[in-house]
Give the backbone structure.
Amino acid sequence: MVNESAVRIVIIRDTGTGMAQDSLLFYSKRGARFGQLNRTLQRHFNLFLITDPTEIDGFQKRTVAAALVDSGGTGAAAGDVIAHLRALPNGSDIVIGLLRDKDAVVGGSVSGPDRADTEINGDLPVAAMLAGFWSAYERRDSLAWNALDRDSRKALVTAKEAFDVLANLPTDESDPAFARALFSSAATRLSQVANTPRTSLMLEQLRGHHNYTFSHSTKVAVLLSGFGAEIGLGPGEQRILAEAGLLHDTGKLQIPMEVLGKPSSLTDAEYEIMKTHAALGGDSLRELYPDMPEIMITARHHHEKLDGSGYPDGLKGIEINEVALLAAVVDIFSALTDKRDYKDPLPAAKAFEIMRPLAGNHVEGRLLTEFEAYVQDTRLVREAAA
Ligand SMILES: [Fe+2]
Ligand SMILES: [Fe+2]
């Protein structure tokens, strides 16, 4: 059986709000003004719009991860709203952004224990507004990492370092804001995934064997789980995707360095050796992850093609599991936009130009279209911040 999987992906965009993993409260009396901001936030959070501070009391039993408080309009003083938020059971952990118009005087006390974590200039484009907020949110996740055991924390910090290295490459895709937006939305998922001894061990081994494969796998994990959230998968499925992404190329642990690390194109014979990484990875992961079939499936089948010309099993069309189809799209995009010794990274737009003709015969067309929309959205965030 090659198509067994607990994750059932319906390849239709789900616009419901239940998809995001964390809840964000947005207090504002001027909803219409922040339409674009709302849409962006909805991609990352379960968003609740409130116009009255007393509505916050209704969230006693629900964990709120973040809040934005708009100090403009004719609403309650921002300080009072923040005080309400801080009074929630996990109030001190909530990442609060205070949205203020340039030069505006903010009513109420916004200092002391009731202060916001970050102030946001409400006159800026959405991405610029969110840049500071994302850093504050990422800091919160970093603090959460301190609670992990030593090995898990190490694996996670290593993964983040690899991502930062990727993010800092001097290329079109190198903007730290772009990376931060991606990483912030994926940090929780990655931390949950890395918090298992078997996965952190695999990551360490992969890093020791071949640093590029490690970095590439981190990028695939971030994009794959972020994209999963985008198409409406729940938190549990996003975690599976993150783990599947981290481990999809672990078969390369068994590929000799003279092939894996060769700084130029591979010969036909070397390419045949390289191709064995899919089956090798699938075999070892089947034993390590008997409880998570998607991990094995992704490793074994991320190089299958719809028309049956892929490897290792030459599966066709619906024989290929949806998770593997998803991973194939993300894997190709990542490889094209990665920098290697022997090639420059391609800008995202160019990568999609190359990928579009693959729809239907190689990759699944609707997934590719949806993935392009997801990346372009994230890039919008980046470009507006620049
Ligand atoms: Fe691969
Ligand atoms: Fe890969």
Observations:
- The first helix runs from residue 35 to 44.
